Amino acid sequence: MKIEAKNLVRTFQRYAALNGVSVTAEDGELLALLGPSGSGKTTLLRLIAGLDYPDSGSILFDDQDATRLRIQKRRVGFVFQHYALFRHMTVFQNIAFGLDVMPRRVRPPKTRIREKIGELLRLVQLPGYENRFPHQLSGGQRQRVALARALAINPRILLLDEPFGALDAKVRKDLRSWVKQLQQELKITTLFVTHDQEEALEIADRVVVMNLARIGQIGTPMEVYEDPATPFVWEFLRGGPLTEESRK
Amino acid sequence: MLVFGARGWLGPVLETYNIKIIFAVPGIVLATIFVTFPFVARELIPLMQAQGTEEEEAALSLGANGWQIFWRVTLPNVRWGLLYGIILCNARAMGEFGAVSVVSGHIRGLTNTIPLHVEILYNEYDFVAAFAMASLLALLALATLVIKSLVELRMRLVEHRSTQGSAAV
User: Fold this and answer.
1) pTM beyond 0.80
2) Among the partner residues B58, B68, B77, nearest to A88 by beta-carbon distance
3) Which of A229, B25, B104, B124 stands 20 to 30 A from A54 (CA)?
4) How far apart are CA A150 and CA A193, in angstroms?
5) What is the mean pLDDT of chain A?
């Protein structure tokens, strides 16, 4: 599904978290929202998810206005930074939650739910983990359960908030190429928030570089790296200040 | 008394409908709730603050409505804290004297609580019965203490589990 954000403004008390931000994510695209903390990238993700609403501006899903649509109606898969797994539920119950809370007339039958969870667990490479509790899993495994839980409701878009932030370096590398692969297989429009340049440049189709509640540049990893639009983008992507010498 | 008493704000209304609050069981319950609920709240508020709202937001994004979130996510997460609060509340309610004494009316077998009964017996110079009653209350207090410790232990286990969990990340 295509997502369009137009001129979004969101202010918290007196501090502007988003100051006129417009982004379009094409159908099936993997888009990275990259920026330092406080740049507004998580706020943008939460607005698109429906966890928060903009003060002005609009959000379109496939050219239909979704700005005021309640989160329950948006069918978005959201993976939280710390996964937010239900700690008192097993892996099975966690993944089944989105299906269990459906109104009776649209809810799939129990046997179908069971099948579906089996499929999802195979998809995230955790078959046989149905009866574990979140605290019995490693960080990477929890991350994958959270992904399976988000995918269980057949979301129209997938939103990931710092999906690899809480993992150690080795697991992070493996997991991000795996997520990329999965996203291409499912062909689902995906936005993910990160402050790690390498991560964004490596797996995203296009990168949205954000700074101080605004967008610095949008482009393919190649474009933003080779041809940065502002000194900030240059500095942030290369991790050093822009000097006369480094211009060459 | 000011609100529900015979001459209180709601007194005449209650009388026409023949509803008894003061000097009846509802009065005792009301008075007890008033002095004990802060125990539950004080137990739950910090716990819920510590847990944050991420799980509720996750439930929202999965399509759950407010009611489902409360029953399936929020309540199970605070169940031990809630039980602990209820036990403290219960302990306080058993021994409550002042507020209940004002509204109960001391009708034996109808609107009397143990501490009030001790007072009545004592005032009747029935010391044996009064002390027996007091001992009963003390025993109940001990039983509550045991249950409280069990729940505390259980809570610490749950807490340990979740911190261990996040350490593994």
Assistant:
1) no
2) B77
3) A229
4) 16
5) 88
